[in-house]
Design the sequence.
């Protein structure tokens, strides 16, 4: 059995094949497309000839079926592929000579068609094995990365070569030497092709593990097998319709540009360079997105752009070079974005949908359908254009064709919907995450992938978290295992800020694989995700030997708020736990609004630790647990820093008769903060908490002005209240409360006067101002 190439041998092969593809694409750029259409037009070829030089070479793509059968019998990939590749290249030598031959134009057109068709047959015969070879070498999880780089190289080299030689052809045309110009360009294409072959031959001798002897009687069965795959048939249906839309156009856009718009070759090639720039800017992003979300959702998004691309030609106007150049140069950048993504994701969809053990036959079937659709449709396009020319002017005829192409692509997009790609994300989910894409997030992702230093990685992770850039989730998850603790902590925090189930799953997988790396930031990040998936794991961490992790687990359970964690948190709040864990558990139950945990709060109000009692009191006040008024009254007998919180809680759930006890707590307060907290409890009982809070937040003249505005009507109506207010303004707050109590029949005011507390007068007059009590 042949040994599989090592990773480094495979990498060497892939690097060399990129050099091969760079030069071979310069060859293709100079012998097809605009240059080939220009030569056909130079020889007087009509619409059929323009489309024939596309259709016939494309139709011979059907040879990929027998090519796949024969090629699988060869043990070595390179020898079989090299034979067809060399014939393909050599057949363009006659094409390079053809412009200089003194033959009739029809004869030269026939020779041209023959050469390009036989050359296409040679390369199509071996292409399934070439693609099978690449599919064997490139890891499945890196196909988007590799083919995006490959497409980038192909696009840039072809665009640069096209622009340089487009300028050269314009020079030859200006000097009435078009025949020499075409010969020169085709000859340079042949030179580039031979350089590419030299690189191809250096790719190394990789052997097939299990060669398969050709069985021609079983050929149809081998091709039919992919057709029996229900999902792959859907892929083929999309391929047929989509490639038909491209074939309908064929060389017609180039012919339209030359015949109708009269665009110079240099401008046509500059358009190619701009398109290449669009590819350069986005191809790696397409590769990353395809690897992350799958090829189908990306292709569906790209199809929207593909539908719109013919519109560029529809917008163009006759005899308006400046307008047309502006529209097309801007539009070609968009074209580059669209078609680079389309070619990448479409081919990768073949690889993803094919059975690995039968990949060559699947690819042969796909490329055969592709060849058939793209081969017949150019002739259909030529026939439609010929018919349209009979009833419309040439420009309108072309534009109708472009509208038809847009319609066919709409149908193609609809046919993509039923296709299933294993492991791909749904289109809806992908679009939802795209909404969070920001330039800052993309830049941060590039920083991480580029291998930055510690400080840069931490800063990049922080930016990803602040923008909730979920597209970078995989890279952030990898950073959880970074050797630098600072990076690990930031990665955990970033996943928490993403707040998705996927982020929670990444944290959980990391904790399962690397329990020794779990820190409190890891557990807190789980809480930030708010995912119920984390609850069982966090519950186990309530029993962890490290106190810091126990507390973090309790707090995270509170943030998640899953009711299934109530019992576990109740157990964590028992007297057997450490005080910090008890406090964190009580706080989490409060955050979860666990009203059924009243017995836990009551027990905590008797806790020896004042921070635990304070947490329990806060839970009672927030949740309005009136049944716990008695435990609160009992807790007020403990004269420590928790008095203010317990007093406030009693104000929330107690009665007016509890005001004296609350005021006693206010008298014992050691700071304005705790005193005001007690008074807010009284204000809560009397229904004036929000007004009292506002006055407490003001000082000096601001407070006096606000108080005057609120009491102006009351002081005018009651002289006694006015006198009390005057005494308050002189600083005699106790006397002011006494005056107010003599003229107001309300137990609450009496209590406030009997136990005068600084700023208690504010609560009293706000209560009186409500108009709910009677004055003498």
Sequence:
């Amino acid at each position: 059995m042949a040994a599989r190439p090592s990773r480094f041998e495979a990498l060497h092969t892939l690097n060399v094949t990129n050099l091969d593809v760079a030069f071979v694409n310069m060859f293709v750029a100079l012998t097809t497309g605009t240059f080939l259409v220009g030569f056909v037009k130079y020889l007087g070829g009509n619409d059929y000839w323009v489309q024939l030089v596309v259709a016939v070479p494309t139709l011979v793509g059907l040879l990929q079926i027998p090519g796949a059968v024969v090629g699988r019998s060869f043990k070595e990939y390179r020898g079989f592929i090299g034979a067809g590749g060399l014939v393909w290249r050599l057949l363009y030598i006659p094409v390079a000579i053809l412009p200089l031959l003194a033959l009739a134009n029809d004869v030269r057109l026939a020779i041209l068609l023959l050469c390009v068709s036989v050359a296409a047959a040679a390369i199509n015969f071996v292409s399934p094995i070439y693609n099978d070879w690449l599919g064997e070498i490139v890891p499945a999880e890196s196909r988007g990365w590799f083919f995006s780089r490959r497409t980038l190289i192909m696009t840039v080299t072809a665009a640069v070569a096209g622009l340089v030689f487009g300028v050269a052809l314009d020079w030859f045309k200006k000097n009435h030497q078009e025949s020499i110009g075409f010969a020169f360009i085709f000859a340079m294409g042949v030179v580039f092709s031979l350089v590419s072959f030299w690189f191809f031959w250096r790719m190394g001798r990789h052997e097939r593990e299990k060669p398969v002897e050709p069985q021609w009687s079983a050929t149809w069965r081998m091709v039919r097998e992919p057709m029996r795959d229900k999902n792959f048939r859907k892929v083929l249906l999309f391929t047929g319709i989509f490639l038909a839309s491209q074939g309908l156009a064929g060389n017609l856009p180039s012919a339209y540009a030359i015949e109708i718009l009269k665009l110079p070759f240099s401008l046509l090639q500059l358009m190619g360079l701009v398109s290449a720039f669009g590819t350069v800017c986005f191809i790696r992003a397409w590769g990353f997105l395809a690897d992350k979300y799958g090829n189908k959702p990306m292709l569906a998004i790209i199809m929207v752009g593909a539908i719109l691309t013919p519109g560029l030609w529809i917008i163009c106007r006759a005899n308006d070079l400046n307008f047309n150049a502006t529209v097309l140069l801007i539009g070609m950048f968009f074209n580059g974005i669209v078609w680079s993504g389309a070619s990448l994701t479409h081919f990768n969809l073949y690889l993803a949908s094919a059975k690995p053990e039968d990949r060559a036959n699947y690819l042969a079937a796909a490329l055969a359908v592709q060849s058939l659709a793209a081969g017949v449709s150019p002739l259909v396009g030529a026939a439609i254009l010929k018919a349209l020319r009979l009833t419309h002017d040439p420009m309108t005829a072309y534009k109708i064709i472009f509208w038809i192409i847009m319609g066919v692509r709409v149908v193609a997009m609809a046919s993509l919907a039923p296709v299933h790609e294993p492991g791909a994300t749904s289109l809806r989910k992908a679009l939802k995450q795209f909404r969070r894409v920001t330039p800052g997030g993309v830049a941060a992702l590039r920083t991480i992938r580029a291998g930055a230093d510690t400080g840069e990685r931490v800063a990049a992770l922080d930016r990803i978290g602040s923008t909730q850039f979920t597209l970078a989730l995989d890279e952030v998850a990898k950073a959880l295992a970074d050797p630098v603790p600072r990076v690990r902590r930031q990665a955990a925090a970033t996943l928490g800020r993403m707040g998705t189930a996927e982020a929670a799953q990444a944290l959980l997988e990391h904790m399962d694989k690397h329990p020794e790396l779990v820190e409190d930031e890891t557990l807190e990040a789980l809480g930030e995700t708010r995912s119920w998936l984390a609850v069982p794991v966090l519950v186990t961490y309530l029993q962890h030997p490290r106190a810091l992790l126990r507390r973090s687990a309790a707090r995270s359970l509170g943030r998640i708020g899953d009711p299934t964690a109530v019992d576990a948190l109740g157990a964590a709040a028992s007297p057997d736990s450490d005080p910090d864990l008890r406090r964190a558990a009580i706080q989490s139950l409060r955050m979860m609004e666990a009203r059924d945990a009243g017995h836990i709060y009551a027990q905590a109000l008797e806790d020896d630790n004042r921070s635990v009692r304070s947490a329990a009191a806060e839970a009672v006040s927030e949740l309005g647990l009136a049944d716990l008024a008695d435990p609160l009254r009992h807790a007020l007998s403990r004269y420590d820093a928790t008095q203010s919180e317990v007093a406030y809680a009693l104000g929330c759930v107690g009665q007016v008769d509890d005001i004296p006890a609350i005021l006693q707590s206010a008298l014992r307060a050691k700071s304005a903060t705790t005193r005001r907290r007690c008074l807010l409890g009284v204000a809560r009982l009397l229904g004036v908490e929000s007004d009292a809070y506002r006055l407490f937040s003001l000082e000096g003249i601001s407070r006096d002005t606000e108080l005057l505005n609120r009491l102006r009507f009351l002081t005018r109506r009651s002289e006694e209240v006015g006198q009390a207010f005057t005494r308050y303004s002189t600083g005699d707050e106790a006397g002011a409360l006494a005056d107010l109590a003599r003229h107001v029949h309300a137990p609450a005011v009496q209590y406030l006067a009997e136990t005068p507390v600084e700023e208690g007068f504010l609560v009293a007059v706000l209560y009186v101002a409500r108009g709910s009590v009677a004055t003498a």
